[in-house]
Amino acid sequence: MPALERMKILDLTQYEAGTSATQLLAWLGANVVKVEQAGVGDPGRHTERGVGDSLYFLSFNANKRSLALDLRSSEGRDLFLRLLPRFDAVVENFSLGTMEKFGLGYDVLKAHHPGVIYATIKGFGTHGPYAAYKCYDMVAQAFGGAFSLTGESDGPPLRPGPTMADTGTGMLAALGIVAAYVQRLETGVGQQVEISMQEAVANLIRCGLSHRERSPEQPVPRRGNRTIAPTDLYPCAPGGPNDYIYVMPVTTRMLDALLSTIGRADLCADADLHDPRWRVDHGDQIWETIAEWTRQRTKQEAMEALAGAGVPAGAVLDTSELLADPHLRARHMVVTVQHPERGAWEFIGPPIHLSGSQVAVRPAPLLGEHSRDVLEEELGLSGTELERLVAGRIVGVHAAPAPTSV
């Protein structure tokens, strides 16, 4: 039995922060119905032109069903409220005030379904001086402190590569929803779950914030790839833009294993080299000694030699190499699905592995693909009534065949 098989979610999320939360719950077995504006859908569907649903959208909406509904109409709103008591949670990440404009704010939803769990994801929360400001991932990363810790010490702040504010917020939202769901199983009472993207990023940089102990009155400086030498990024053969390995020997034993592996066991007895303060002052010299060895090997060869000797080391994989990585494939993290419009494509699958819960990965739905199914299953609407709603554009449908998992 899938872990969250009995959880039912009305998903009004878009782009990434909200969709990653509901996808994670769907991967754990929750019945997630993605409610999208009829005729338009999640804006994330349209980030690529001329290809149908974008790979961006497909990456964050697997294992969901799509109900296309015109929430701007009174009849569409009424349909949503009729569905509401049959579901456990509503999740949204619209701009502040949008749900209220729809007439679907938390007070309204709670009046119709006292046990509802209402999860709201905002850039800066629902109150405070910046609550009304619009936000995207990188804005939250800048304002949450992540930019200030990224880059070289003598250069400007840099945009981190991962969308930590979006997906990180989504993961926290999913945890909050599950916690509220477990509490409701005990009390029967629902509640609001609120996640701020800025606060999520601030939470993710707790390690960086802890370094303030060294200079409490000063901001934590950027340190590039190097912390205390020899922890750093090293070039590998043949010298391409991603031919690097990151090496992080934290203990004395790891440092000695590194030196032995690169053929410099003679340095293991050097007292200075085992003094962290000396290594800070002589980082460039240490880096060149190690780089002389790594330049003669591919990043995979270097990683296998170092990691095999007990030294934490990771080759810098680019996006193509990541999908081809034999370790990820052996762990079934690279999933192939068959989409009815895009065909077969690969993406990174569920990162949570439960021994007692198995859920097959399904591709993201087409807009309105499950409108008829959901309204018939949940509300028992007749064929005639459904066709009237479709004809009046209150409900959107998609005639393409349902996708199949590979």
Key terms:
single chain; 406 residues; alpha/beta; Rossmann fold; formyl-coa transferase, domain 3; 7-stranded mixed sheet; 13 strands; 37% helix
Low-confidence stretches: 401-406
CATH topology of the largest domain: Rossmann fold
Structural class: alpha/beta
Beta-strand percent range: 5-15%
Count of helical stretches: 17
CATH architecture of the largest domain: 3-Layer(aba) Sandwich
How are the strands of the biggest sheet laid out side by side? 6-5-4-1-2-3-12
- Using DSSP, what is the number of strands? 13
Helix content: 25-40%
The gyration radius over C-alpha positions equals 25 Å
Shape: elongated
Q: What is the CATH C level class of the largest domain, in words?
A: Alpha Beta
If you had to describe this structure to a student in words, what would you say it looks like?
This protein has 406 residues and is of the alpha/beta class. It contains 17 helices and 13 strands. The chain has helices at residues 17-27, 55-60, 74-83, 98-101, 106-112, 137-143, 164-187, 197-204, 206-210, 252-261, 276-281, 283-294, 299-308, 319-324, 326-330, 371-379, 383-391; strands spanning 8-11, 31-37, 65-69, 89-92, 117-122, 191-196, 232-235, 244-247, 313-315, 334-339, 343-348, 395-396, 404-405. Strand 2, helix 2 and strand 3 form a beta-alpha-beta unit. Helix 1 packs across helix 7 (164-187), helix 6 (137-143) packs across helix 8 and helix 7 crosses helix 8 (197-204). The radius of gyration is 25 Å and the shape is elongated. The two termini are 21 Å apart.
